[in-house]
Amino acid sequence: MLHNIRRSVLIAAAAVTVLFIAVAFVGVGRGSAAQGPSKESPDSVGYSVRLISPAPGDVLVAGQRTTIIWDALLPKIDLTWCEQEINLSLDGGKTATIRLSPQLDPRGKSFDWVVPDTPTEKAVLVLRFGCEGTLQETAYPQTQSVFTIASSSSPTPKVSLKSLASSEVAPGESVTIGWDSNVDDVSFYEVKVSYDQGAHFHRLAKTDKNEYSWKVPSDMAGHATFKVVAHTKSGELVESSTNAKPDLLLRRSSE
């Protein structure tokens, strides 16, 4: 009888050992799967940003060169496909009609800019952050840091794009891009186009006139944003403001 009891105890111990090994194997398998590539969702990452300069109540003057400074807590994900940008609101953050920056490095925390000639007592910067395929681009209006943009006591060099005759065109059609300028000693104007709402600009032409006729390429579709840069003989650059929304819709010829 004692022999039978010992035999039962050994069988039970062996069963427990097998069960422990099985559970451990499953746990390792799950752990290995978790280490593979995964797609983060906005709910599983964290991002926050705080504007440092301009500070609340600051008064900036049109034409002034200054630096936007901010601090940010970045999400703990691969930042390879992430980017940030800065827009300007003139109505306290309700709308952001002017794009101030191109596409910026997600780790950047400063940007040099020239204050535009857009007087307002409700200026607010809107920082945007997003990661392609991972984190949807989101706007972060810095409404806690309302500042003023004041007119300059002296004329501010300015280049202003004129409204286009049409808001959309088809490939092969021509568009006249015109602008007003009070910049002295202009050597030439550089006309640029962006196909990604101001993230990157490409040169279209150099001209000494105040307009340029652009023929839309036959394989082009999407939208376009324009910028004109005045190059002075002394080497100064004066840029037109960039609209936050595209200036022109490029429709396909078959539409």
Question: How would you portray this structure in words?
Answer:
The chain has one helix and 19 strands. The protein is mainly β and about 260 residues long. Strands 2, 4, 5, 7, 8, 9 and 18 form a seven-stranded mixed beta sheet that branches. Strands 11, 13, 14, 16, 17 and 19 form a six-stranded mixed beta sheet that branches. Strand 4 and strand 5 form a beta hairpin.
Topology:
Elements: H1 2-34, E1 48-53, E2 59-61, E3 65-73, E4 82-89, E5 98-99, E6 110-114, E7 120-131, E8 135-141, E9 147-150, E10 159-161, E11 168-169, E12 174-181, E13 186-194, E14 202-207, E15 211-215, E16 222-232, E17 237-239, E18 242-243, E19 248-250
Parallel strand pairs: 2-9, 11-19
Antiparallel strand pairs: 1-3, 3-6, 4-5, 4-7, 5-18, 7-8, 7-9, 10-12, 12-15, 13-14, 13-16, 16-17, 16-19
